[in-house]
Design goal:
Cell wall formation. Catalyzes the transfer of a GlcNAc subunit on undecaprenyl-pyrophosphoryl-MurNAc-pentapeptide (lipid intermediate I) to form undecaprenyl-pyrophosphoryl-MurNAc-(pentapeptide)GlcNAc (lipid intermediate II). InterPro entries: GlcNAc_MurG, Glyco_trans_28_C, GlycoTrans_28_N. It is found in: Cell membrane. Pfam families: Glyco_tran_28_C (PF04101), Glyco_transf_28 (PF03033). Keywords: Cell cycle, Cell division, Cell membrane, Cell shape, Cell wall biogenesis/degradation, Glycosyltransferase, Membrane, Peptidoglycan synthesis, Transferase. This protein has about 350 residues and is an alpha/beta fold. The protein has two domains: about 180 residues, Glycogen Phosphorylase B (Rossmann fold); about 180 residues, Rossmann fold. Helices cover about 45% and strands about 15% of the residues. The protein is built from 16 helices and 13 strands. Strands 3-2-1-4-5-6-7 form a seven-stranded parallel beta sheet, with helices on both faces. The chain has a six-stranded parallel beta sheet with strand order 10-9-8-11-12-13, with helices on both faces. Helix 1 links the parallel strand 1 and strand 2. Helix 4 packs across helix 5, helix 8 packs across helix 11 and helix 10 runs parallel beside helix 14. The chain is elongated. The structure holds uridine-diphosphate-N-acetylglucosamine. Uridine-diphosphate-N-acetylglucosamine binds next to helix 1, helix 12 and helix 13.
């Protein structure tokens, strides 16, 4: 079987694409997977690094409205659909899977033209434009969060990397804390602003460093690849990292997380049973608050507005949560029960069903 996976831009789209590629090959090692992206996205680095071929089409700038203009295929869209048709004719996939984002629009339109089966996977709680278009062309549509409104949508979750879906935090805790130079015993907060980091989170948590130290709470603070922040020297440790490749170790070291609410972050953090304080990014189409909502509603996390997150708020609320083991255990269980971590396997089932339908 040959499968074309269309998606790219940020880690938000490339991560589920790669997790799905790996699951397809695990299921049947003879499966040929090709990725489709655009020239500027993260896919240009991470897809070849993962060992999959990458085909490129020119990007299409989209207006936010799914309107008649788009379907009347203006010139640039026509050019990129033509490029996608050339890829289909060369790669000859049995099925085209889209993860949303700009590259999925030409992928869906070209697949429809060649009458190929289409599978749509929506990563965020609020569907984007590309996937709303794709869902018009197929019945094989998957969502990452319960309650997402998308035509034909079936809730399966978001495919995540195996090192996270198979993680046993208890087994790895000691190794993980040693890896980051953390104390073996102290309650531990992980801070992450997603793949880019988040200045607001960085300032608020660093500004409360003294409150963590006096409560005996240590911090593993991932500040983002472009942020240079000195670690406050304190006991127990306050460790600063710019980017962590082994997020399984970061999750295993932690007792709770303070984070943005990107779709992968919510799935990984709650799926591995970590209590979380979610501070949704207040831009975009509002998807981050919606991503965290099912976990928060179930009692697995707290939702804090960006403007509420000051050093004072952090000092008043977060050390107290970290030193309340009973509350942490209840939140952990509630979080793990809402979010499944087998979406990669379920999406493979859906892809196979689309091919044989
Ligand atoms: C600013 C922006 O456009 N944000 C969007 C972007 O977020 P963003 O690109 O931040 O994506 P997510 O929060 O969904 O995922 C971050 C991913 O990066 C990994 N990670 C993070 C830090 C680190 O040091 N190491 C590491 O490996 C995490 O484990 C996770 O897998 O895509 C998401 C999914 O479409 C959307 O919900 C977000 O709204």
């Amino acid at each position: 079987m040959r499968v074309l996976l269309a998606g790219g831009g940020t880690a938000g789209h490339t991560s589920p694409l790669l997790a799905t590629a790996d699951a397809l090959v695990r299921r049947d090692p003879s499966t040929e997977v090709t990725a489709l992206g655009t020239p500027r996205g993260l896919e240009n680095r991470v897809v070849p690094a993962a060992g999959y071929p990458l085909e490129l089409v020119p990007p299409v700038p989209l207006s936010r409205k799914l309107d008649a203009d788009l379907l009347r295929t203006p010139a640039r869209l026509r050019a990129t659909v033509k490029a996608a048709l050339e890829v289909l004719d060369r790669v000859r996939p049995d099925v085209v899977v889209g993860f949303g984002g700009y590259v999925s629009v030409p992928a869906y339109l070209a697949a429809r033209r060649r009458r190929l089966p289409i599978v749509v996977h929506e990563g965020n709680a609020k569907p984007g434009l590309a996937n709303r278009l794709g869902a018009r062309f197929t019945h094989h549509v998957a969502t990452s969060f319960p309650g997402t409104e998308l035509r034909h949508g079936v809730y399966i979750g978001l495919p995540v990397r195996r090192m996270i879906s198979t993680l046993d935090r208890g087994d790895l805790r000691e190794v993980a804390r040693a890896h980051f130079g953390l104390d073996a015993e102290a309650p531990t907060l992980l801070v992450t602003g997603g793949s880019q980091g988040a200045r607001r989170l960085n300032q608020a948590v660093l500004g409360a460093a003294a409150a963590f130290a006096s409560a005996g709470v240590q911090v593993l603070h991932v500040v983002g690849p472009n942020n240079d922040v000195p670690a406050p020297g304190s006991t127990p440790p306050y460790v600063v990292e710019r980017y962590v490749d082994r997020m399984d170790l970061a999750y295993a070291a932690a007792d709770a997380v303070l984070c943005r609410a990107g779709a992968n972050t919510v799935t990984e953090v709650s799926g591995v049973g970590l209590p979380a304080i979610y501070v949704p990014l207040p831009i975009g189409n509002g998807e981050q608050a919606l991503n965290a909502a099912p976990v928060v509603d179930a009692g697995g996390g707290l939702l804090v507005a960006d403007e509420t997150l000051t050093p004072e708020w952090v000092a008043d609320h977060v050390p107290a949560l970290l030193t309340d083991p009973r509350r942490l255990v209840a939140m952990s269980k509630a979080a793990a029960d809402v979010i499944p971590l087998d979406a990669d396997e379920r999406l493979v089932d859906m892809i196979l069903a689309a091919v044989t339908a």
